[in-house]
Amino acid sequence: MALAPRRLVHKPRLACGSRARVSRCAAALTAAALAACIFAVATPFPAALAQVPGGGVPKPVQEAIRSAPEPGPEEVVTGAYINDIQQLDFKANNYVIDLYVWFRWTSPDIDPSKSMEFMNRFASDDNLREALTEEPDKLPGGGYYSILRYQGLFSTKFQLANFPFDTQYLTVIMEDTVAGAGDQVYVPDGETPVLIDPVITLPGFHVGTPTMKITTNTYPTNFGDPTVPDAETYSRIALSVPVTRPMIAMSIKTFVPIALIVVCALLVYFVRPIYVEGRIGLGITALLTLVAIQLTATSSLPDVDYLMMIDKLFLLAYLFVIVALARVVSTSWRDESRETETRAQDRQWAVWALSIYLIASAAVIWTALR
Fold it and tell me: Which of 182, 210, 245 is the last residue of a domain?
């Protein structure tokens, strides 16, 4: 029996050939799929979608963004305690203050206790700045706290126009060396941000109640930094301690010596006109004594370009003595026959000269005290 011819069945061939080729093709297809996903994610939205107002952001969110307040400068709460005032040098225009200064703030990116600078400190190797905490302390309610102690010389230009009845203000000025007022501002710590030791004494002065004033200071330069505006404003702390001289004690020390010399010069009018040498000698002695007393009274003061109150009082005393000497010289040519007339006129001169001197002196003192 003849066998039927065998039909050959042709299996379709894979395009990639062998098993190895199949594996390589599968890997290539997987990589292509991943690349397509990445490309789809990285491709921006269609232009039509990008033109939607707000880029597809809901309107309430847009309004919330527009109404959100602009971030303001960092507020640094500041207080101070004046521990001692150790000396006051009018001739050098400086004084020594021992004080504590503390800061509280919220941002972890700043440390005002390290960037704060005393602007009116006097150059001296004895100045001491000591941080009482190595790192800012974290407060339980949030924020940071730091305190430092400073003891050293500070400088100011004393106003002595009303000396010896002047009131001086011992100031301590602080600013941040890094942050301007747009980034950081000082605020006082409560209603009494600065206190002073209640038992503090300063010989020769009464110490008043200190105050703190927060101001701004604008420098008309950028200090060579092109990234900073030409006139940048900085927040400034100004501590001020008023000191005054005791009025009764200073009045006795100032007026009594001058009054005694004026009285001595007044005696010129009561010496007999025939004793010309004695009258002139009395006036010259009073004049030289006035000069010596003035040099002593102003020896501890700096040279100023204006007349102080005490200078005006001495000038009036000089004028009184000069008038008395001029009267003696003008009557020295008279003979003894006119002595009675001269003595009567001298009494009148004494009354008028003393009255004018007292009125002028009172006017000077009243002008200084008002």
Answer: 245
